[in-house]
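quick one: pyridoxal-5'-phosphate bound model?
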Amino acid sequence: MSDLRDAAEKLDAEDVLAGKRSAFVLDDVVYLDGNSLGALPVGVPGRVEDVVRRQWGELRIRSWEESGWWTAPERIGDRIAPLVGAAPGQIVVGDSTSVNVFKAVVAAVRMAGEGRDEILVDATTFPTDGYIAESAARMTGRTLRAVPPGEVRAALSGRTAAVLLNHVDYRTGRLHHLPGLTAAVHAAGAVAVWDLCHSAGALPVGLDEHGVDLAVGCTYKYLNGGPGSPAYLYVRAGLQERFDSPLPGWNSHVEPFGMRTDFEPAAGAVRGRVGTPDILSMLALEAALEVWDGVSIEAVRAKSLALTDFFLECVAEYVPRGRVESVTPDAHAERGSQVALRCEDAGEAMKRLIERGVVGDFRHPDVLRFGFTPLYVGFAEVERAARVLGEVLAP
Ligand SMILES: *Cc1c(COP(=O)(O)O)cnc(C)c1O
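yep, here:
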């Protein structure tokens, strides 16, 4: 068993991202829930204080111009862009992921044209995506079909208008093959919409490289933007002209201060905006994104895989045989940045883990989820988490 502690020490010593840990507010809890709410970057409180006291308190209305509030959605979108493999000018930040799923799915159906009457959605999706896809289907007069991701290729046809998929499954941590599935959707003449909630900030996405049409994602998981921080919407440059938002607001108007009665969309990603942005949350996110300076997403991916490999190795060693079963794929090509363990009394087990300073989460009915944020999780913590899990599950 001390072999694993030695291994952890060696892995920590070789960790090229180890220096990033000090960019976060952490304590001696092993925090493996960054796939639900990322930890607080140290630069955020001071920035929020400045935004509130000086930008709002002193400059007041002038801040829309002078503090760059008005252009924050595009500016922060461009800050996220390199993390998901997008060139500038294709991402806007604002609203929740749920709202952006709505914009993207309806816009995708409108782009696909009249002859296509079906929307496909990942049958294992995070519920909000499914609910919204169903409503979007009713509103656009299309039929929604829920399909397991492995069967999407077979389900595609000339009837398919749009396909809404998750890059990483929120429950199992399974990574879906974005390049191959996007190509298959395109071969069927349909529009691909990807939800990146569990991949952005954890692994390379390659939106431009793989020709993704539309994508959405949240910023409070691996991007550490804070509770309820605004989500983002990616609209590929070549499709922006045809992006017809179901929520055209004055912020997406070509002339927002023209106060015109007719709607004329702005050019570019800006047409994904709706109303007045949530400036306090948005600027907290902007400060949080500074931790990515000098970080390569490839290095993040390499460490993420090393962390999840090591966790699985430690679990195999410490947890009594048969008490847990990993539902996360072993193959690196199919694994996101979390490990999900099926466990009979998962709810109770997670409560006891948290009491002992190891924070993951529980997903109904029987899954223990452990998220590994490469910027601040170390290998000794991984070893400790698995050891405590073994103790909690000991007969
Ligand atoms: C976290 C998550 C969401 C969250 O949506 P909100 O609108 O921010 O509540 C949506 N979809 C997926 C796949 C998620 O993992």
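The chain has a mean pLDDT of 97.
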